[in-house]
Amino acid sequence: MNHLKTVDVLGLGFMTFALFLGAGNIIFPPSAGLAAGEAMWSAALGFLLTGVGLPLLTVVALARVGGGMAQLTAPLGKSAGLLFAVTVYLAIGPLFATPRTAVVSFEMGIAPLAGSGSLAQALYTLVYFALVLFLALNPGRLLERVGKLITPVLIVALLVLGGAAVFAPAGTVGATAPDYQAAPLMQGFLQGYLTMDTLGALVFGIVIATAIRDHGVDMAHRVTRYSILAALIAAIGLALVYLALFRLGATSHAIAGDAQNGVQILTAYVQHTFGMAGSLLLALVITLACLTTAVGLITACGEFFSNQFPVSYRTVVIVVSLFSLLVANLGLTQLISFSVPVLVGLYPLAIVLVLLSLADGLWLHPPRVFRPVMAMTLVFGVFAGLDAAGLKALVPGWLGSLPLAEHSLGWLLPALLTLLGAMIFDRLRGCPPVRA
Question: Which CATH superfamily does the domain covering 6-331 fall into?
């Protein structure tokens, strides 16, 4: 069989939607909406550009090359490409994002109802990762288990929450915070940029492609087509969720005007609107969102490391799950302080890699363009990571005077100038000789 039924395509899209929708995606929009106030739609547009647009482009880029990061990074050379891929998988997988899903879902969904404490958290994370491991051990059933079973429940819960935000706001739209008054679009852009979903898309691409192939589709162009359809369905779903949560935040000034983060805004809103039932609803949404993301991350790590190294998929999945369980209970706070700078440094590299790949038809010899542009982006990514780590003494002062540096986009101009030079060099050298 080289085609999917409509119900399977929808299930694939729902699975992709659930993989991307983690706790962070639910927390950031209300916070940005609260700060944006009357400028919420401009801020929401900026958020959609980076929170939806870039991940969508990443999945498309991966689908075009076959679904794996090895093909996407091929122009960098085998060693550099493998190093980049391993770093991304470790950073967004077992070293940070996966254990964080357990802790965040416990603190937001379970602790308010059952109380917090080390024993309660240990028991919860044990059950949580046991379920994640069960779902990840059979990736061939991922579409049925996540796309057709878990995700519909998550979507219904989100529809209730989003519908209430639209039709039963807690108050009127509040005033715009000073940070959003001058450039709400850019502020929203940065909030979406910091969700790190483009890195997630690099990891999830292989999961989507594998789910398609496990349903009997082995023709490359059909795998590409279905991957893009799944990404489009997920993008529409994410956009609707983000817009509803932006409105929820913007109309919550009366009940959460002093809130410091999206958790406080959401908690105040659901308790105000639904009472105890709201707390249960929020617990369900957060737990399911975190669970599906964790399953996707661990499955992706299993697929990648078993393909690149002499180790079985089952072994990788078990090791990553156990490691994530330990980190979630023993060292998450310290790990976050280490991981955030790593992610900040990796994100510009991911953006540049995806955009260069999508424009591959323009290059006569892709390595001539990919390697210098990625190298320049790496330099500025390292400086961005050092700055995020608080090591400002190691960051040259003149970097702060670059265009858009105040918006964490100081790498953009150097990357563009390097790209221009690489393009000229590529044209001057011409097509490489064809080897016999």
Answer: Hydantoin permease (1.10.4160.10)
